[in-house]
Amino acid sequence: MLNFTNFLYRNIGKRIKHYREKQLEVTQDQFVAKLKMTNYISLTKYNLSRIENANNIKKNNPYLLTDTQIQGLSNFMDCSPNELIFGTVDEKVKMVKLILLAIIINGSKNKKTGGFIYPFIDSRVTKKAREKIAKKEGEKTAIDRLEEFLRLSKDIITDGELTNQILYLYLNFHYVEEVDEEVIQECIDWYTTYYPFFIDPNEFDNFQLLINDFDKDIETQSNLIIKLLMGNIDFSKKFMEGIRNIYFNQQTVPGLIKDEDFKDVNDIKQNTGQYGGLAILYKEAGYVSFLNAFNEMWNRNNNLFMSYFNDHLFSIDFTTVKFKSMDDDYIHGIINSYEFIKLLYSKLEEEMYNKQTMLGHDNFRLYLQQIILEDNIDLLELHNDIFYQYNLEAIQLHNRYF
User: Fold this and answer.
1) Residue 112 Cα distances to 136, 139, 246, angstroms
2) CA nearest 105: which of 229, 247, 13, 237?
3) Per-position b or e across 181-194, b if 16+ CB within 10 A of its CB
4) Same domain, 184 and 318
5) Which tens digit of pLDDT belongs to each residue from 211-232?
């Protein structure tokens, strides 16, 4: 289940703090005095601090804000209760994208570190940011983040001279005395131009708040959204290459694949199992194809997804609905509903036959059929099987043109 409550409370707190600091430019003491003076609500500095830091305590403010506080604060900040809680239109768009990404990942973890796999590029790698991280988490963490940033950037950034500089820094990382700050900033600027959402440190933080362990209830939705990404043929090829490698190793090198990582071909057919890590290609060389596939999928379907979440989440009237109902179970009901699953199935069916996206889906289908045939036919009989030969020739024809 997604950590929606934690995510929501943190962003409400940041919204109030931003209004106080950036728009009013006042201290917490001055803010609560203004609230009292205008007769909106009475709030202590202590409670304001708790709200701004999303530090809800069961005895004092178990749901962060009371309904009265929501009405008073929204009136004082000259916004609707809906905007106070969910943010501006742009913030709502980003929230939906984060929810979709969290569904895709569905608790997938890094095999080396044991931590969640994040589909974002951590941009906190400038000298100033590294010094701050080093104080909190240690020098090694700061250095590791910079090295990871360079590793990803050498495969993603397509700017001749800059790419060469990144490659040099990465290959000589442990020998270079100090990484050129200008190169790092150029990289961040490049990402900001081409992948602004995935380089945004605020959205990275938000995703970390939202993500949770694997949830079997949303594995169907996770697989369906991953299949929507197949509309990008490059992503489709890399994803299926990963799937084929897994099945090949399972069949030919017993014991190489751990039991918890074992994949059943029926999982993909039935939209079960956990494929979030593979979807972002474990952030290896093909990771950029995931970024492109997600962006393209969003550009095609953003109206559809925003319409759904506007109807089921963002249109809530907080004069009649209690704020305390906005919890993990609430968002779980929205993304686990029959209506949402039906929407995903319908869109997938449409894109499988759409000229813009059908080639990637054809690639996915052909390679999946090959895996299914290899799984059901004796290895020695494969090349004598007419269905296998037919599918193999179809793949060769497909690859010849695409």
Assistant:
1) 22, 20, 18
2) 229
3) eebbebbbebbeeb
4) no
5) 999 999 999 999 999 999 999 9
* pLDDT bucket at 257, cuts 50 / 70 / 90: low
Domain check: are 82 and 148 in the same one? no
370/260 same-domain check: yes
Q: What is the per-residue pLDDT across 326-370, written as a single tens digit (0 to 9) for each? A: 999 999 999 999 999 999 999 999 999 999 999 999 999 999 999
Tokens (6 digits) for 74 = 């929204």
pLDDT tens digits for range 137-147: 999 999 999 99
CB 309 within 8 A of CB 92: yes
The residue whose two tokens read 């003491």 is 29
Write b or e for each residue in 231-252: b if 16 or more Cβ atoms lie within 10 A of its Cβ, otherwise e.
Answer: bbbbbbbbbbebbeebbeebee
Q: Given CA atoms 114, 212, 208, 268 in this order, what sign does their dihedral have?
A: positive
255, 334: one domain? yes
Domain span holding position 76: 4-87
